[in-house]
């Protein structure tokens, strides 16, 4: 199963179809399933979808399907309802025939904790293929911004380059971001990095440039004219989208105006 899940359909048995009344008012749902083919004796595992070389952890600190009670919890996008009892969904990460235990509406005010923190992900990122990492960035950006538009696509390309140059998890607390003037790029980079004024990681910059600041290092992206098609943005070279300037320790200008 791909990390980002797949498009899928959930069948609600006729006896329970009445419970779907009003569900179409929600863009996202919480899908709770019983992973009927998963092992129940495993207490430690690795995030093997990324790499089997990652450190072993307890299953309560992983999203591994193998655990004492193999219950899955997924936030999925509702695309539509067919015949009043078939839910058409995106980002479903369970296999065919998996029993669904419950369905709940996803509520941003209660279920989204944007300030939440977790472990440093750089080891996972280093082992991911470029396509897999890009899909993760797209999902983080779209979850915050709401759609995959050209500005979001540019932000994803910027984030890919910044990760490669700084060799760090962009959500790390020591990384500050100045996303520039474009609102779509700014939304996407906030969603990807978790930067906000309250944690002092979101900074201001003017014009068509984005900055990432790490201890002793700064990366500046000077944006070029952006193609108006998402696929073209993902297909073209980085040089067609932006120029990149890297300042390292002892090169950083003192109190440089952002």
Distinctive features:
258 residues, 7 helices, globular, alpha+beta, 60s Ribosomal Protein L30, Chain: A, Elongation Factor Tu (Ef-tu), domain 3, 4-stranded antiparallel β-sheet, 5-stranded antiparallel β-sheet, disordered C terminus
Q: Strand portion, in percent? A: 25-35%
**Model regions low in confidence, pLDDT < 50 over at least 5 residues:** 254-258
CATH class of the largest domain: Alpha Beta
The topology string of helices and strands comes to: EEEEEEEHHHHEHEEHHE
Rg computed from alpha carbons, rounded to a whole number of angstroms: 21 Å
The tally of structural domains comes to 2
Q: What is the approximate shape?
A: globular
What is the CATH topology classification name of the largest domain? 60s Ribosomal Protein L30, Chain: A
Helix content: 10-25%
Give the end-to-end Cα distance, rounded to a whole number of Å: 44 Å
Number of strands: 11
Mean pLDDT: 92
Structural class: alpha+beta
> Total number of helical segments?
7
CATH architecture of the largest domain: 2-Layer Sandwich
Largest sheet: 5 strands, antiparallel
Reading side by side through the largest sheet, how are the strands ordered?
A: 1-6-5-2-7
Describe the structure.
This protein has two domains: 6-111, Beta Barrel (Elongation Factor Tu (Ef-tu), domain 3); 122-248, 60s Ribosomal Protein L30, Chain: A, CATH 3.30.1330.130. The protein is 25% helix and 25% strand. The protein has helices spanning 108-111, 122-127, 130-145, 150-166, 183-193, 230-235, 238-241, and strands at 6-11, 28-34, 44-45, 57-58, 71-82, 86-92, 100-105, 176-178, 209-214, 217-223, 242-248. It has a five-stranded antiparallel sheet with strand order 1-6-5-2-7, with no helix packed on it. The chain has a four-stranded antiparallel sheet with strand order 8-9-10-11. Strand 9 (209-214) and strand 10 (217-223) form a beta hairpin. It is globular, with a radius of gyration of 21 Å.
């Amino acid at each position: 199963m791909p990390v980002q899940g797949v498009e899928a359909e959930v069948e609600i048995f006729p006896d329970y179809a009445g419970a779907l009344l009003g569900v179409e008012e929600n863009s996202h749902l919480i899908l709770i399933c019983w992973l009927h083919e998963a092992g129940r004796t495993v207490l430690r595992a690795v995030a093997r979808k990324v790499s089997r070389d990652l450190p072993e952890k307890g299953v309560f600190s992983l999203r591994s399907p193998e655990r004492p009670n193999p219950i899955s919890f997924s936030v999925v996008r509702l695309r539509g309802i067919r015949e009043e009892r078939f839910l058409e969904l995106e980002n479903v990460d369970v296999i065919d025939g998996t029993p669904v235990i419950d369905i709940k509406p996803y509520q941003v005010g209660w279920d989204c904790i944007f300030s939440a923190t977790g472990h440093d992900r750089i080891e996972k990122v280093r082992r991911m293929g470029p396509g897999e990492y890009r899909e993760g960035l797209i999902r983080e950006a779209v979850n915050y911004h709401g759609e995959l538009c050209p500005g979001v696509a540019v932000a994803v390309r910027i984030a890919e380059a910044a990760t490669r140059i700084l060799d760090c998890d962009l959500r790390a607390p020591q990384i500050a971001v100045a996303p520039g003037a474009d609102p779509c790029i700014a939304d996407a980079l906030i969603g990807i990095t978790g930067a906000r004024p309250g944690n002092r990681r979101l900074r201001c910059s003017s014009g068509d440039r984005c900055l990432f600041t790490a201890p002793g290092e700064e990366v500046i992206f000077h944006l070029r004219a952006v193609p108006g098609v998402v696929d073209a943005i993902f297909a073209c070279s980085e040089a067609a989208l932006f120029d990149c300037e890297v300042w390292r320790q002892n090169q950083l200008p003192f109190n440089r105006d952002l």
